[in-house]
Amino acid sequence: MGEAALDYVIDFISGLDEAPAVNVDRAMEVAHELRAVPPEEGGDLRSAIEGFAAAAANGFEPAGPGYLAFVPGGGVFASTLGDFMAKAVNRFPNLWETAPGMVQIEVNVIRWICDLFGYPAEARGILATGGSMANLSAIVTARRARLGEDFLDGTYYVSEQAHASVAKAAAIAGFSTRNLRTIAVDPDLRMRVYALRRQVREDRDAGFRPFLVVPNAGSTNTGAIDPLDAIADVAEEEGLWMHADAAYGGFFVLTERGRERLRGIDRADSITLDPHKGMFLPYGIGSLVVRDGAALRAAHYSGAAYLQDVSSEGELPNFSEYSIELSRDFRGLRVWLPLQLYGVSTFRDLLDEKLDLAAHLDGALAAEPALEVPWRPQLTVVPFRLRGADDDANRRFLGRINASKRVFCSSTMLDGRFTIRACILSHRTHGDRIDEAIEIIRKAAAEA
Ligand SMILES: Cc1ncc(COP(=O)(O)O)c(C=O)c1O
Fold it and tell me: What is the pLDDT of residue 207?
């Protein structure tokens, strides 16, 4: 069975260069063909793999080099192998005593992430399933640390460019959306710090308890990085918890340019960053690190009589006391194995390459008179649109680009206008595909 699955995976990965970046023409038909109740009697693996292969071939292709939509990651194969082994062994890493060596591997990964930001020894963290879950744990931690049990008068602050998961997490954490303060951005789409300070003071005067600011450390729309140092000053002066949403941008700290652009991030009380974005790993791995590890634990700890046989935390943590989950898979290997195989320098070099590619794409598109390229990439998102054209024309323009099936871009609204974005963040995307993307975009613009 393993060999049959591996045969499929090898074919799939070998075909990625030629595979369409998006293939939706028959996708719903294939979905309908798969609509069935489970068989009463067992069947054949090969035909099950064929069904899965058809499903995988119809839809978007986030694993391929032409995927520039949303936030790509690609999916490093070594990480898949790590998952394969971890799931076969099926250990339970959320209570340290059940698998101390495996817990140590996760601790190593989390410590490595903490070290990227100079976090102290008492910092702690978790491997979550993604940025949304990490942001939820962060907000619950900030709520508990700054507001205590009665928190309904707490107000929190994000920029107009914040990821929707932040407001969603706050709503799940029990806050009214009326307590959300959306702070205006400057022309570079970075939070206006004076507006933040003014809003915090107004809220305090009105009897609210401002408690949390969530700056972008690489926004989803454009990769904009809020003025982290200045926001940290406000957080310090006003007693706010600062949670940096670095789900997309965080791992750029490995590069010199990224470290420079993210200056001040190490002053955050907590940071979300997603290995399934900035480390190119397969979906299902995010992380949260918290400077004061005790605060993370205080927000998530709950004892239970049926767990009385397992030891309380000692040298190693019980991750269940730091996170929302109890039973979960062993995620550490997903990150640890690629790090062992390729070393940190490989990730640094790849991220540097993505920064170069984004600058190259930006320069090439900005030189096109038919295009408007309003924002220089602060990381690896290049937003662009047709000059002097309305939203419908730009929507058609995106359709033409994606019809090439060699690249797949997505869109957003910026300045109230339909804007196309190319996000370069797959380990499989290199200069050849970006040059091809430039030609495709030029041709589509000429046709428009
Ligand atoms: C800045 C930012 N924050 C949070 C998230 C949510 O992460 P996830 O999709 O892993 O839940 C994303 C996803 O793109 C993001 O870009």
Answer: 98
pTM: 0.98
Kindly state the tokens that stand for 130: 């993604």
Query: Is 311's pLDDT higher than 90?
Result: no
pLDDT digits (tens, 9 = 90+) for 326-363: 999 999 999 999 999 999 999 999 999 999 999 999 99
**Would 289 be classed as within a structural domain?**
yes
How many domains is the chain built from? 1
Report the separation in Å between the CA atom of 71 and the middle of ligand 1, taken as the mean of its atom positions: 8
* CA-to-CA dists, residue 290 to 2, 54, 265, angstroms: 39, 42, 12
Residue 76: closest CA among 220, 284, 270, 268: 284
State if residue 72 touches ligand 1 by the CB under 6 angstroms criterion: no
- 158 alpha carbon – ligand 1 mean position (Å): 15
Instruction: Supply the CATH number for residue 243's domain.
Output: 3.40.640.10
- The atom number, within ligand 1, closest to the CA of 220 reads 16
Of 331, 338, 274, residue with least CA distance to 77 = 338
Q: Is the CB of 131 under 6 A from ligand 1?
A: yes
The pLDDT tens digits for 197-250 are 999 999 999 999 999 999 999 999 999 999 999 999 999 999 999 999 999 999
In angstroms, what is the C-alpha Rg of the chain? 23
Domain assignment present for residue 291? The answer is yes
Rounded Cα distance between 338 and 335, Å, is 6
- For residue 267, the enclosing domain spans 82-337
